[in-house]
# Entry
Amino acid sequence: MSSQRIATARRNLLAWFAQHGRPFSWRRSGASRYEQIVSEVLLQRTRAESVDAVMGDFVERYPNWDALATASRDDLQGFLRPLGLWQRRAESLTRLATAVVLLGEEFPDSRVELEELPAVGQYVASAILMFVHGHPEALLDTNMSRVLERYFGPRELADIRYDPYLQALARRFVAHGSGREVNWAILDLGATVCKPRTPTCEVCPMARGCLTGKRRLKEPSFVLCP
# Structure
């Protein structure tokens, strides 16, 4: 987990992301913090492509926290139905929006305080600290965990939220001037290349330094792209 090894992997990853990153609506330069945070809440247990398909209409119907807090529960549930778990999602978003309005739409700059808000766990708290306060936080989920563990070595604990090695590694990896893009890049790599069962190591920008990639690329059927 040397600094040089992290820097090399990050550099190769960002170069790949510049060409292959997924152009989701919440990633565009004009996306509001509201869009970014709501999208992260909706992304829980949902494919990013599914969330992206509804975000434009969602923001048009509920353009801010106040509109979301006062939305009809039936209307919100109906809108979220295509994403699944619509009742739970509607409840979470309404409660979070209400809390945010009461805070004057100012999010605390403290993980402890953030995680006391409705619908805010470790992942969403990291997103708020990054998008709102500019902290170098990692959006650590199963995709990011898989990429990091295959490259640097496995964690010890089953739950990624509490593994000190993985938490420290993820924060070090995204501690960069383009931390937001590093997060998105590693998430995209995990979703499209470094897949759980069928990773396409031959096109992975990190394969030459990856513990799993180097092992797989020794197999006769694999040819590493330039």
